[in-house]
Specification:
23% helix, three-stranded mixed β-sheet, alpha+beta, eight-stranded antiparallel β-sheet, ATP_adenylylTrfase_C, Alpha-galactosidase, HIT family, subunit A
Length: 352
Amino acid sequence: MGHPNTSPAMARALKPPANLPSLVQTTFAKARSAGDLHYFPTQVTLLPVHSVPVRLPVFIHVKRPFQLRFSPALANKPKPPPQDTASPKRTFDPFANPAAALYIADVGPSHYLVLNKFAIVPEHFILATRDFKEQTDILEPSDLEATLACIEAFDAGKKPGEDDGLFAFFNCGEHSGASQPHRHIQLLPVDRMRDGLESGAAWNVLADRDDLDSTPFVVFSEQITLGMSGAELHGIYVRLYRQACRAVGERTGLPMGDVAADGPTLISYNMAMTKNKLVICPRLAEGGSVYNKAGEDVGKVALNGTLLAGTALVKNEAEWDALRGNPECLVGVLNGIGLARKSHDEDGVNKL
């Protein structure tokens, strides 16, 4: 950590713009108005999601609000440009030469910020590596330092009375919801994740909740603080990643061996970062089937790293209606996307 008398802004070598919240807001508004990005409005509701049993003095199931959004317009999302026939193994890379209208700012010499061209949450933006690096490789200290630098800048630039900052997430591996091979970490303003919810709604970011360790899926987390160095963050990240790999190996029987701190990932996982927490969720599936009350299969819900914010997205009305009418179906999906929590021991301690 930085010196106790040193502010995060002074300790941080990587410095995004001090006016980051307003810069993201104005860039998004201008790009949307000019038609340079696609924004897909959503309907939203909160679903009660049961956790594994918790013993308070007696065993109970805790109901946590999980945010469900529905965007029918996503079914008509524009297709990416055709694959380059001269380089058949390399798909179109949106982060190789980002459109000027979507560009926000540099973050140090190796990263930059760009708007998400296909936004569900307004002002959704992305931290990408300037040079191509694999999304499926272990993150480097500079990736984590740049992410926390953005969280710090956003926190420092909030307007008076605003409590929420940024939620950052990273999708890694075939079961994580990842869609682009060029390394990038996604950033969502939490205030905009609340759009459509009633004032005072109970939802807040799952990664920061006190009951994170009783989710239907296993996570590994540690507290972090503003001002941490890239090396400190990387040490925490690698420790959590190794715990996740060992847990997947124990549950599935897959040999893990020595888990390296660099190179290709051994598992699929999502990572989330807030100003308080770093979280890793190992993934075994991208999603699961949606059933209505009659037991009919009406579709599939896929989940990426926003599940660590406590959110899910559906794209057709049958799925939307089925999950609202049968919230336990979402619990079933959440039990199946990673390592389901099995039980508690007699002392009420979580077991994997």
